[in-house]
Design brief:
The chain has about 375 residues and is α/β, with parallel strands linked by helices. It folds into two domains: about 5-200, Rossmann fold; about 215-380, Rossmann fold, CATH 3.40.50.2000. It is about 35% helix and about 20% strand. It is built from 14 helices and 13 strands. The chain has a seven-stranded parallel sheet with strand order 3-2-1-4-5-6-7. Helix 4 (about 85-100) packs antiparallel against helix 5 and helix 10 (about 240-255) crosses helix 14 (about 355-365). It is globular, with a radius of gyration of 23 Å. The N and C termini lie far apart (about 70 Å). The relative contact order is 0.10.
């Protein structure tokens, strides 16, 4: 008999968490597991990447409660009242106030989910995979029947809005709590020392064979640029650090270097980054390529890969970039040292514009040529104006 597992996520947006889930499912023997993905909403560029035999469910009531879950309570209450739902607006305001007074997020979630039925089927394992998202954690505990329940933590809990008080009350209901790096595990234990016996690390997995195959099947750079191509992959957001490398490229161009920087990803910081690119007159040099479910041809073809994140749990795009023989520069976020051997398989620098800039210059000038980190003899040399 197959083991029935349900993974709960927000959606299937093109991101590291979703990619990690798809990679995990790909490695699970089909004959042993009956897999379901439960999403809050039917959305995302990875929807078509879900294996055909994986069941997919959605919370059909989520559109009705989405504002309550994600928006500031005040704006949500005003919206409810504007829709002439006086009683609902008053009740929502009271529950919000009580949850604050008693410091009980669970009280708020219980109210929000009052009209959302529990998932019908019973599972062997239920996984709150999009952790730490408190709403999904609460849903898995209270709305899914399973013999075993697991919380998965994908982020650095010291860098995001991790609510320890909520976790201390809810997480004891999970049988296991996994962080995606050893460093992430240690940080989580410091936050929740009483749950140390339940916390362990489980690194995100990738299939190098699949990555290399997709790199050969997809389309990469289409421009005719003959200088050095630098690539960054990740959601366009402050935590991913693209604003830092816009400044780095400015310094490179000011010093007359023939480089272009390409970014694959989409996100809510696009407008801000487009403005920065315009201010620095980099419209032809810093290229936002948008979201792409297959960034691997670009990873294969680039000259330098840079991961400038301010924080991560276990950076899956960094793991994927390591499948190729191109030099890598990464900032020193959680889990980076578990992937990169300094000066041997890449360079780890502080989250600082000058350090990223200097490391690129060192690579270009062949400082690490003797250890094979960057053999630019086969690359087009960098021209100075």
């Amino acid at each position: 008999m197959k083991t029935k597992i349900i993974f709960m996520v927000i959606n299937m947006n093109i991101g590291g968490t979703e990619k990690a889930l798809l990679n995990m499912i790909a490695e699970m023997p089909e004959g042993k597991y009956d897999i379901t993905i439960l999403m809050l909403e039917k959305y995302g560029g990875f929807l078509d990447s879900i294996p055909a035999k994986t069941k997919v469910k959605y919370i059909k009531e989520y559109p009705e409660i989405k504002d309550m879950v994600n928006n500031p309570p005040r704006s949500t209450a005003i919206k409810i009242l504007k829709n002439r739902k006086l009683i609902n607006g008053i009740n929502f305001s009271i529950i919000t106030l009580l949850s604050r007074v008693f410091k009980s997020k669970s009280l708020f979630f219980k109210y929000v989910l009052k009209n959302v039925p529990a998932i019908e089927n019973e599972y062997d394992i239920a996984v709150a995979y999009a952790g730490p998202m408190d709403f999904i954690s609460y849903f898995v505990i209270h709305k899914i029947k399973a013999k075993k329940k697991i919380q998965w933590i994908h982020f650095d809990v010291t860098k995001i809005g991790f609510e320890r008080q909520f976790a201390e009350k809810l997480y004891p209901n999970f049988d296991n709590i996994f962080a995606v790096s050893k460093e992430g595990k240690d940080k989580l234990i410091k936050k929740l020392p009483g749950l140390e016996n339940k916390i362990d690390s489980f690194p995100n997995r990738i299939s190098k064979e699949l990555v290399l195959k997709m790199a050969d099947e997809g389309q990469g750079f289409e421009d005719q640029f003959n200088g050095i191509r630098i690539l960054t992959v990740g959601r366009l957001s402050k935590e991913k650090g693209q604003d830092l490398v816009i400044s780095v490229l400015t310094k490179l161009k000011e010093n007359g270097l023939n480089v272009k920087w390409y970014c694959i990803g989409e996100g809510n910081a696009r407008g801000e980054y487009e403005q920065l690119i315009k201010e620095y007159d980099l419209e032809n040099d810093f290229i936002l390529l948008g979201a792409n479910p297959n960034p691997y041809p670009f990873m294969k073809q680039c000259d330098i890969y840079v991961q400038p994140s301010r924080h991560e749990g276990y950076c899956i795009t960094l793991a994927e970039a390591r499948c190729f023989n191109n030099p890598i520069i990464s900032t020193n976020f959680t889990g980076a040292k578990e992937q990169i051997k300094q000066g041997k398989t890449g360079l780890i620098v502080n989250i600082d514009v000058n350090e990223i800039y200097n490391s690129i210059i060192e690579l270009i000038n062949g400082k690490y040529l003797e250890i094979g980190l960057f053999d630019n003899s086969s690359k087009t040399s960098i021209d100075k104006n």
